[in-house]
Amino acid sequence: MAITVQIPTALRRHTAGVGSIACTATNLEELFSVLDEKFPELKPHLRDDAGQVRRFLNIYVNEEDIRFLGGPGYAFQEGDEVLLVPSIAGGTS
Amino acid sequence: MSNYDGQPHYELRCRECGRSWGNQPRSICDECFSPLEITYDYDAIRPSISRERIAQRPSNMWRYSELLPLPAGFEPRLPVGFTPLLQAPRLAEQLVRSMNDANSAAQNLYLKNDAVCLPTLSFKDRVVAVALAQAKAFGFDTVACSSTGNLANAVAAHAARLGLKAWIFIPSDLEPAKILGTQVFGANVVRIAGNYDQVNRLCSQIAEERRWGFVNVNLRPYYAEGSKTVGFEIAEQLGWRLPDNVVVPMAGGSLITKIKKAFDELTKLGLVEEKPVKFFGAQATGCSPISTAVKTGSAEIDPQKPATIARSLAIGNPADGHYAIKTIKQSGGWSEDVSDPEVIASIRLLAEAEGVFTETAGGVTVGTAGKLYRQDRILPEETTVLCITGNGLKTTDVLAGVYEAERPIAPKLAEFEKYLQQSLETLGVAKEAATVGA
After folding, report:
1. Which of B122, B147, B329, B422 is the most exposed place for a label (fewest CB within 10 A)?
2. Average pLDDT over every residue of B159-186
3. Cβ atoms within 10 A of the Cβ of B393, count?
4. Which residue of B32, B305, B319 is in closest CB contact with A87?
């Protein structure tokens, strides 16, 4: 499926400043593979050592949280717009 | 007060990888994408802070300035905070199960009443006061926020006071009083056809495009520190001691973690004796991602679509949810949630028992506290503080239809005597019915 992906500013230093890319992927796993290949430095910022999506990264498809669409198993539709948005937490020590 | 040898005594640090980021409008670590937290040089602070020095200062949240990330030379323009800590004996009698328990709980239950926090009648005045101090220092001429209402009011008012422009983003279904209470300060209000989580996501995107000080995006680490003053005040108002339990309403989940941080800092600086405090979180059942996680033993948030009258708590994907769960679990506390009818009943209970009119979030807190007493998770002999974070005048819409409109009577004594007689008879019937029902 042809989709577009928006990269947040915080991660653009790992994409040579690229903020948006068009690519083909059927699901999140494939999308991450595409991003890994295109931007190898980005990889550790999207997933942790266990390969899970990082806790503070929210993924939206057409403005809906992917977790409401079935999570990582969601099958991308033609023309989907994927947003990677950092979760803004305050945290505490 | 906020500088030591010309250097700030605080800085941003990544709470996961530990990298220092100095002081700047930023909330995310570029290295690992994790949240940034304000850390302090406690050794530098220690000599300048004591119970006696604090007691000599004005009764507002700025009396704890050493433990807030304030810019050099900061002069407060508003006396925010230092709200009353009230004993709540009549409420205690209603929340516990037996008369014996009631006597004990009556001595030990307190309300931290931020329904009267200045200038906009919610605890959000505290966080905004700190965030906007830094917004000025960072050179922003425009501040902004995503909000479920109380934050909107606070940003708009504080911005007006400081001469800053304000852009406020809210879900379109907010209570009319909260919308009006934002517009009146001259702020630009943008109603978004979506829930808070969608508004928040949009604001994250806008914050990347515009050089605005978003209090809960790029200023969030500074903003969040303002919540600690609730904890500082509770300890000081209890006579410089920590309570056994705190019950805190949870939306994004930040407040509960910051009250814990406040207690930890007071302990670290020797201002209170070390003591275990249990943290209890309160949510509305219609939006309960954090309490659900606590009750199911999960460490992570499963987001929800909010469906509750407690709109100020209607955050389905709470940013600090993970940390709130951790705070609650590590303290030995718990989290509960209450239905919308329970929220309304609890607002009325608090008003009738203690003369405190709270908004829906306070109803959530009081209703949750009742459950925790009945579950024996909170014991009557323990010092317990309920955090009442907002004012009922902002959410009167939820009480629409609860009270009948009184019929007017002629301005004649005889008319009143007749009216009184009828009212007493009606009350008597109602009381009898209630006794039979019990």
Report:
1. B422
2. 95
3. 13
4. B319
Domain count, chain B: 3
CA gap B97, B229 in Å, rounded: 33
Q: Which domain holds residue B21?
A: 3-78+124-224
Q: What are A44-75's pLDDT values in tens digits?
A: 888 888 888 888 888 999 989 999 999 989 99
ipTM over 0.90: no
Domain assignment present for residue B265? The answer is yes
**Contact yes or no for B126/B81 (Cβ under 8 A):** yes
Q: For residue B298, what is the DSSP state?
A: -
Q: What is the CATH number of the domain that holds B146?
A: 3.40.50.1100
For residue A42, give Cα distances in angstroms to A12, A87, B32, B33, B333: 9, 17, 10, 11, 39
Identify the closest residue of chain A to B252 by CA–CA distance. Answer: A89
Q: What pLDDT, in 10s, does the model give residues B2-16?
A: 444 456 899 999 988
Q: H or E stretch including B137? A: helix B124-137
Min distance A46 CA to chain B CA atoms (Å): 8
* B214 shares its domain with B112: no
